[in-house]
Design brief:
about 750 residues, alpha+beta, Jelly Rolls, Immunoglobulin-like, TIM Barrel, 4 domains, 8 helices, 44 strands, disordered N terminus
Length: about 750
């Protein structure tokens, strides 16, 4: 009985203490994985003790650090509130509050503040050192407090930042950290594809802490930053070791190692660019992603004050003309055709944050296994470890600047601040070869000013002024988008022609979809049709490479993202819709049907001009000497956007009939095996030099090849020839486009002009 009374008293006292702590906001409801609409297999591996435990900064490594990922208390208060008195529960950092892995899965609106709080202890061994608090990224405006003192604030959703918190620490017992975050999502900040109303090509918002939070002890004078620039032509690595002090007595020793053996070194002043010779260079490439180790020591006189480890790759990216005089993207002075995917970096359970480092690596390994050598990181900046895996596994990267509205002077200033931080923060990764300034004109402004400024920030890489739509004829690339495509822009004397987006073949798989609503740019009925169409697209990409000067092609996309089901994989990464071996063969031109040599291009292979009329021109319209001076000029193909699958509409045609004429010039070619390539909806008749070459009925849903009449083929001669086309449609969609091709086994010839 006495034991029972003691137990009862103990229980009551414990309950009262618990109630007091609950009322003070010190204890909150426990964390658990929120029931998201779709999860990856890695979600089951995540728990409060192992949330991204990896060292987060692989290119500036110190052995001593403390990871602050894990459970934090959180609260959401009205924006006007400057304090939080109680917490709603626990959130798993570094997963954004909207994600299932955060344990909260709650939207943060523009009228609220998201608060984080946790306690930590500074290791006793750190006494006498400065302590820095690092954030990989916080979306978007963060205020940081240590033991009630504000140590700093930061605006920007994609770049790392840190504060020296030494003077705010108690150095005994528990220290308290609080972070207050404001994120309007659709305000005037760079945000990529985040939307408060996600649908189509826009996705769920991402707010708050979404990359690793960590502590690091450093000397009072220490290595703050590295800038590593490979100079392949000069056989050296240019190294700048930045410190907070400009004292002339500070010297750095830099040693490069390969397989543990030193292969070069340099000693010189801190904060100055030094040249580290690399005598027998082992170049980095996707086929051979060789990385050197780097050891850097900072000295004040003879006294060692700091040291860090890093790595680098020796590679060069530049523009040069090939043997045919076509401007090409050259990697290490060789033309490497770049075939990649649009890579959005979204996760169904973590939104911007991959569930684990293994998951982050998995996407890159999948692309490599599928024969891709490139990813275009689309309007998002990843954690450093994603680029580390690209460096290590060998995947080229085109890095987009996350888009914003950029409608006000303040928002444009913020855009440029974050652009500079992106370049500086990811500068040392050899995998990154192109900076993409704007995507499709989203928030585009002052392109002619920003491109040379961006190139001055980084003279070692190329710049794409705008991927798709709004080219301002500056930068290093002329970049078009074409769905499903493919298409090649006209090559230029000083810029390489690239296809920044194409494909978008959509297929939603039951059990692996985000919601009941799903879509693709071009819907496919099953994996067989998807595979066949993908291979056909890549066949045409290689024709564009060989005959029209295309230097790179980027397929949409690596994975499905929410309702957008254009991925090679499902959103949960559980199913590859295409066999990676088949994709690899198509990407490497190993498909036997790749095969076509373009003689007279259609819209599949560039912008082709025609003369056309929608009014019946009467007799003789198909003959070479017909007077078509009154006809309009337009770019093929001709049709109504969105009505006929596979159509590439350059000029709108929305009547019952259309008549087309164009001239083309042939050389001394053997055309015995030439075929007509066409896409029609509906009935079409095609003439060469006034002679009927083909007549087709019905409609098609893609480009295909047919034989031409012998009499018409016999009229094709060196010099100027003329093609005339009539198309008639009765109902539904409408489209017409025509070209001439030769199968692979026939005699090669240059394309017509």
């Amino acid at each position: 009985m006495r034991v029972l009374k003691q137990s009862l008293v103990g229980f009551l006292v414990g309950w009262l203490l618990l109630a007091c702590r609950l009322s003070a906001g010190e204890i909150t409801a426990p964390w658990h994985l929120a029931p998201g609409p779709l999860l990856t297999r890695w979600a089951a591996e995540v728990n409060p003790t192992n949330a991204h435990p990896e060292y987060p900064r692989p290119q500036l490594v110190r052995p001593d650090w403390l990871n602050l990922n894990g459970l934090w208390n959180y609260a959401v208060t009205p924006l006007a509130s400057n304090e939080v008195t109680s917490f709603a529960g626990q959130i798993l950092v570094p997963f954004p509050i909207e994600s299932a892995l955060s344990g909260v899965m709650r939207r943060l609106d523009e009228n609220s503040t998201l608060w984080y709080q946790r306690h930590f202890q500074v290791p006793a061994a750190w006494a006498g050192k400065r302590v820095r608090l690092h954030f990989g990224a916080v979306d978007w405006h963060a205020h940081v407090f240590i033991n009630g003192h504000e140590v700093g604030q930061h605006r920007g959703g994609y770049d790392a930042f840190s504060f020296d918190i030494t003077d705010s620490l108690k150095w005994s017992g528990e220290e308290k950290i609080r972070v207050a975050v404001f994120d309007p999502t659709e305000g005037d900040q760079p945000r990529g594809k985040q939307s408060r109303k996600p649908e189509g090509i826009f996705y769920s918002p991402n707010s708050g802490i979404w990359q690793t939070v960590w502590l690091e002890p450093v000397p009072k004078i220490c290595i703050d930053d590295l800038r590593l620039t490979p100079d392949v032509d000069a056989h050296l690595l240019r190294v700048r070791v930045a410190t907070g002090s400009l004292a002339e007595s500070l010297q750095v020793e830099v040693h490069a190692l390969a397989a543990g053996q030193e292969i070069g070194s340099v000693t010189g002043p801190a904060n100055k660019e030094l040249s580290l010779p690399i005598a027998a260079m082992h170049l980095w490439s996707p086929e051979d992603p060789f990385l050197y180790d780097l050891r850097i020591t900072l000295k004040d006189g003879e006294r060692v004050v700091d040291s860090v480890a890093s790595y680098f790759g020796m590679r060069k990216i530049a523009l040069h003309k090939d043997d045919a005089g076509v401007m090409r993207l050259m990697l290490n002075d060789h033309f490497t055709f770049q075939v990649g995917t649009l890579d959005q970096g979204y996760w169904p359970d973590g939104i911007y944050t991959a569930p684990t480092d293994d998951a982050l690596r998995f996407d890159i390994e999948f692309l490599k296994r599928s024969g891709f050598n490139l990813a275009r990181k689309h309007v998002k900046v990843e954690p450093d470890r994603w680029y580390y895996w690209c460096d290590k596994l060998g995947l080229l990267v085109w890095q987009d600047m996350p888009s914003g509205n950029n409608t006000t002077p303040d928002s444009r200033t913020q855009f440029e601040v974050e652009l500079q931080r992106m370049v500086e923060g990811r500068f040392n990764h050899p995998s990154i070869i192109v900076w993409v300034l704007f995507n499709e004109g989203w928030g585009q402004y002052d392109t002619e000013r920003l491109v040379p400024w961006l190139k001055s920030l980084d003279t070692s890489r190329l710049v794409d002024n705008a991927s798709g739509w709004t080219d301002k004829r500056v930068g290093d690339l002329i970049d078009v988008h074409s769905y499903p495509g493919p298409e090649c822009p006209q090559t230029e004397m000083d810029r390489a022609a690239v296809l920044g987006e194409f494909g978008g073949l959509g297929l939603g798989l039951e059990g692996h979809k985000w919601s009941k609503q799903f879509w693709g740019y071009l819907p496919m009925t099953n994996t067989a049709t998807l595979t066949a169409r993908y291979c056909k697209l890549l066949d045409r990409v290689h024709v564009l490479r060989d005959s029209f000067g295309l230097s790179a092609a980027i397929y949409t996309q690596t994975t499905d993202v929410e309702t957008e089901c254009n991925g090679l994989m499902t959103y949960d990464r559980a199913v590859s819709k295409l066999d990676p071996a088949v994709v690899q063969a198509a990407n490497h031109s190993e498909n036997a049907e790749k095969s076509l040599r373009v003689i007279v291009p259609d819209a599949m292979y560039g912008r082709v001009s025609w003369k056309y009329t929608l009014n019946d021109p009467g007799g003789q319209w198909q003959f070479p000497d017909f007077n078509d001076a009154a006809w309009k000029k337009g770019v093929g193909g001709f049709g109504t956007e969105g009505l006929t699958p596979g159509a590439i509409v350059g000029t709108t045609w929305d009547t019952a009939d259309i008549w087309l004429r164009r001239e083309f010039t042939l050389g001394a070619e053997d055309l015995r095996d030439a075929q007509i390539q066409l896409h029609h909806d509906e009935d079409a008749e095609i003439y060469f030099n006034g002679v009927l070459a083909a007549k087709v009925a019905g409609f098609s849903t893609h480009y295909y090849e047919i034989n031409m009449n012998t009499d018409a083929a016999d009229t094709l001669k060196p010099g100027v020839n003329r093609m005339a086309v009539h198309c008639h449609q009765t109902t539904g969609g409408q489209f017409i486009d025509v070209g001439i091709v030769i199968p692979r086994t026939a005699k090669a010839a240059a394309p017509a002009k």
